[in-house]
Specification:
The chain has 270 residues and is mainly beta. The chain is built from four helices and 16 strands. The strands form two sheets. Strands 1, 2, 3, 4, 5, 6, 7, 10, 12, 13, 15 and 16 form a twelve-stranded mixed β-sheet that branches.
Amino acid sequence: MFVSKIPLPKLILSAAVLACVTSLAGWAEEGEFEEAEIFFELNHTDGDLGVHGLIDGDAWYRMSIYAEDGQEIFNGKVKRGLRMQGLTEIFFESDEPAFDDLDPLDFFARFPAGEYRIEGRTLDGEVLISETELTHVMPAPPAPSVNGEAMAMQCDEEEPGYDITEVSGPVTIAWPQVTLSHPDALGAGAGTQPPVPVTIVNYEVVVEVEVEVNGEEFTSVFSVILPPEVTSLTLPEEFLAQGDEFKYEVLAREESYNQTAVESCFALDE
């Protein structure tokens, strides 16, 4: 006959503690993050993909992210002074291997489409829970021009096919509206699915120029986010006065937050 070696009082105490913990967890207040997005970014020019996260809300000390299959893919916890202070916003960006190193379909297989769950615990003990839909539908790449000149396809002067666009000021970067998904249907079997309509929520334009001041080099950046109905941007003369050769990026962001960017360059023809 089996006889328990655990004294009865301990069994009773353990059950009581477990019931208390369960009760406290069930009674914890619940809220949501103010912003909770998991999304993909495609650099169409370089041919690489990455997964990003943008999460914002009340000060928290612990956070987990769960994929649509329930598997935890992120676990973060702050300690010591940062535990007392808490975090309110976090942005992360994964490594972005080139397609030659990681096929897009293999990349998407690591992050199945579906509903992702973000959970956190605030400094006040509140549970924050938000859900976001992750999709493999990527916007088609924008097709910008500079003063009507098609975008340069090779901006590295050390590479074959270097063809920087030369223009005279004022400088306007313009592009047709993006209305469809990527023509290669990267996440649905490359080339096997026709493009589908997408809703663009904004465009982003980033322009950079290398500047030297007092013998020190740094990158001067002009960046602006535009509403979906605006598809052109004239650069300020003050910014253009800083140099002769400029790199720029035009990014189309879809309502799921998935975004596709292209990069190019231009030079001022003096």
